[in-house]
Every structure is written in C-alpha cells, then in structure tokens.
Amino acid sequence: MNYINTHNLGREQWLALRRGGLGGSDVAAVLGLSPYRTALDVYLEKTGEKQPAADNRRMQAGRLLEDTVANWWALHHGARIRRDHKIRFHPRYKCLFGNIDRLIVANDKRGPGVLEVKTTSGYVYKQWQESGLPPDTHCQIMHYLNVTGHRWGRVAILVDGYDLHDIAVEYNTAFIRQMTERLLDFWHNNIGKHQPPQPVNENDLKQLWPKADADKIIQADATALQTIDKLVDVTARLADLSDTKKELELQIKLLLKDATVLAAGDTTLATWKQNRDGMKFDINKFRTEHPALYQNYTEMSPGSRRFLLKCGQEQSIENN
Q1: The CATH number of 3-208 is which of 3.30.360.10, 3.30.750.200, 3.90.320.10, 1.25.40.10?
Q2: What angle do CA 134, 137, 143 make, to 5 degrees?
C-alpha cells in the first residue's frame, strides 16, 4: 500500500510520520529555492533537533479557506474534486511522501490530477503573473505529481479574499528526475548519516553554533586570506560611498530647509518629512525608581556575536 489513511490520525502521529520522509513543503528548502526555510531547517526538524515552525495567522487562514477555494475552483471549471485524506508515498522511494490538497477526478480522458490551493495578496499575485509560479509552489506541486504519478495539476489561487485565479502545471520529467536525485541524496547522505548540510545564511550559522568558544582560534588558510582581502576592499568602498551619500543628502536637505517635498513640476524628487511625536518609555528612570518591579519583568537573553574586521579599515557588523 502506497498511502496511509489520515482519518482519525492525531497531530502527534501525523508529525511523527512527517519526520519519516520529505514532504511537499520540504522540497524547495532542500533544493535551496525556499524564501522561508533552508535545507538545514529541514535537517534539524527531521532529526528531531528542532520543532517545526508554529502556526501563524496566514497559515491558519490558508487552511480554513482551503475548502472554500477548492470548491469555488471546481464550480468555476465544472470539475469534480475529492478530498484525499491520505499521506501518499512514492511507489519506489518511501522517504518521499505528499499530502495533496485535493484530487481532481479524471475528466476529458486525461486521468486524475492534483489541485493545490493557495491564498495570497494582489501585490504578490502580480509578481506571479510576471514571473510564473514561485519556485517553492512549483517544487511542491511537482513533488505531488512525482509521488502520485499523476501527469497534470492546477494551482487555485484566491487573491485578496475575493478574486479567484488558476495556473496550470504539467509533469516535467527532467525537473522531477533532478529533484528526486537531490531529495534522495539529502535524505540518505545528510539525514541518514546525521551530517548537517552546509549553512547558507546567518540563521543557519546561529543554529549550528549558537555559542562562541572564547578560547578557540582558527588559523586562516589561503582561501580565508583571499576572502579577508576582498572584504577589506569592499568595506573601504562602501565607506566611501556612504560618506558620498551623506554629503549629497545634506546638500538636498539644505535646499529643502523647512520644506517637506522637493519637486520638478508634478514629479516628487525627494521628501524630508517630520515623523509624528511619540511617547518614549524611560527604562533607566523606571529601573531606578522601581528596581524590584523592573527585576520581575526582565530575563536573561543570550548575547549576540559581534563581527569585527581587524585588518585594513575596521568595520563592525552586529549579528543580532
């Protein structure tokens, strides 16, 4: 059997099943195409070293609207759909699974298809129209086609809560082959051998090395020395540009004086607006006058690591 029925499946059971393989929401992260997660995030979740991200309002809204959007799409296209209620596994690779939003029942002799439901804003959807499906959504539905063996799918998109759109997706043999190879390599060589993937951003570094060893020194090799030289050069150029920018801004502000807008006819060139007055909490005064109360509402937070370039022009970068 290539699926598990999700009827009466508790959340803990469902989460345990998810840790046993790679699902649609993991694919783009493993491939380095997700704007929200990295391969290291997936690795830490699958190995139990990190809990999946908690629900947010956007995720909750998407789930609550899923049924409405799917039924609206089916009505609009005269299609028949069915809730799947299954965790489906790839017929050959059991570490690849998918929870499809809806199954599109066979029509026009095409065989069944996969319906993925999304909700988004008009601003985001305009980018989709210009550039096509975002990579994470494309990877997700390709993964579902790979797992189910179906050859086509649709993405139903509710824009701004009232505007329904539809994007067709066809099975892409070359993409799916490469995607499957990457996923299997990650599952067997990273997760299976308990080898974290290479960090790709600052957050990855913090997850792997949350604390600094004050006594540890690394000797720079040739590659590190070349990188330092490049960083010194870029830092110096940025400092020059920053000074030039400040000087040019000052010249424009001298033109504006107490005016808010600099214009050329009907075209606004620059603004120098006054922010609204606001209240500021005087924490030092509160700590002095109410030390016990202040102590009750403070807690220890981990110190941030501060990066300092010690050769060439010194530059401080705070890693918060």
Answers
A1: 3.90.320.10
A2: 135
